[in-house]
Amino acid sequence: MKVLRNIIISLLTGILWLVVLQYFLGNRYTFADQAAYKGDSLFNPYQRIDKPEWLKGNFHAHCHAWNGITNGHGSAEEVHRAYDSLGYAIHALSNYHEIDTSLHRRPAYIPAYEHGYNIQKTHQQVLGARAIFWNDFIFPQTVHNKQSILAALQRDPQAVIVLNHPSKRQGYTLEDLKVLTGYHCMEVVSAAAKSFEEWDTALSSGKRVYIIGNDDLHNVRTGDRLGRVCTMVYAPTQRQEDILTALKEGRAYAAEIGAGQDPYRVPALLGLKVHADTVSVVLTDTAQAIRVITENGRLWKSFAHCRALSFRADTTHAYYRIEAQFENGTVLYFNPVFYSEGTSPATITASIRPVATWWHRAIGLLILLGWLLLVKRLWGPGSKRGWGRGRLQRSE
Ligand SMILES: [Zn+2]
């Protein structure tokens, strides 16, 4: 009985410690105003692009890892072989808290892992990772928890930090995305989840966040999700630094691959230019429909059956982003052009509130102290109460 009692007390103490650590001992932030982009000139991430030299990439795939505790089937070699056969220049394996190094001698090798083991699937992808950040908050995370994880991941200065599948289990809510900073990209489209509302919310709140599209592959053997979504990256070489810089600076777009699509010939962007306030776009293939989207995902204009188009932007909209849909089911999603005031991407604009942080910590420590006193009083040495003899018996 005594052993069982001690196990239950230890378990409850452990859970209480995790709750207090997550909700009371961490940093509290104050978030900057949620302002849309401002400025007179349009910033265009694609301005320097004039050749269709895109690298096809997938940055999110899992294989068998951690003795099968995590969801992943097939070996690293099988995953890499499968992506090689589909014309991918870049294929990062991103197991949970584990960096795959099997391709480290190849060009376009990206060391990566998926961060997060919490119940609400608030996950981040760390691309170009040099080390693993092990901590996480396991219960549903507050926006302060999420901001402090992003701040910790940012300590690796070369890494590209991506919010993974934000709409899945509401890992990131729309309210979170209005204020969170400190990440470069969002996995807006994957075979597991689409998060356009989340992306448009972040963009409409003035966050310079670029798109990534991934398979989020978990089973290479069944091929489920394999080759369905990719990111096309415009980098001068296949060196890791060039690929990471291209992602950080928005020289990429996401593609959903239609069933009839030749995987070696995904439609590409030939050019997207801004001259004064005129935006012109040229694609390699004729699209069935091209949509121009503005704040909060509003459809602003659409064009049918064309390969090239241009439109005039004006400051009534903060950004314009383009989607191109093809007859075979393939859809391309481009990063926006936006009126800019020069905020660099991934700058953390939230600041720690020291007084609120220390108040919360003091409350947390009081809760822990109260629990320890209660345990000592009820069941500690010298206490007259045994297991099962409660207040009722005493008060008789
Ligand atoms: Zn995930």
Describe the protein in words.
This protein has helices spanning 2-23, 76-84, 143-153, 174-179, 196-204, 240-248, 354-379, 391-394, and strands at 29-30, 42-43, 55-58, 90-91, 112-115, 124-127, 160-163, 185-190, 210-214, 229-233, 252-256, 269-275, 278-294, 298-312, 319-325, 331-334, 337-339, 351-352. With 396 residues, the protein is α+β, with helices and mostly antiparallel strands. It folds into two domains: 2-28 and 353-394, no CATH class; 42-351, Metal-dependent hydrolases (TIM Barrel). β13 and β14 form a beta hairpin. α1 packs antiparallel against α7. The protein is globular and about 85 Å long. The relative contact order is 0.16. Bound molecules: zinc ion (ZN). Zinc ion binds next to loops.
Strand-residue fraction? 15-25%
Low-confidence stretches: 387-396
Number of helices: 8
Ends distance: 24 Å
- Name of the level-1 CATH class of the largest domain: Alpha Beta
Number of separate domains: 2
Based on the coordinates given, report the CATH architecture of the largest domain. Alpha-Beta Barrel
Q: Portion of residues in helices? A: 10-25%
CATH topology annotation of the largest domain: TIM Barrel
Mean pLDDT: 91
Shape: globular
Please provide the count of β strands: 18
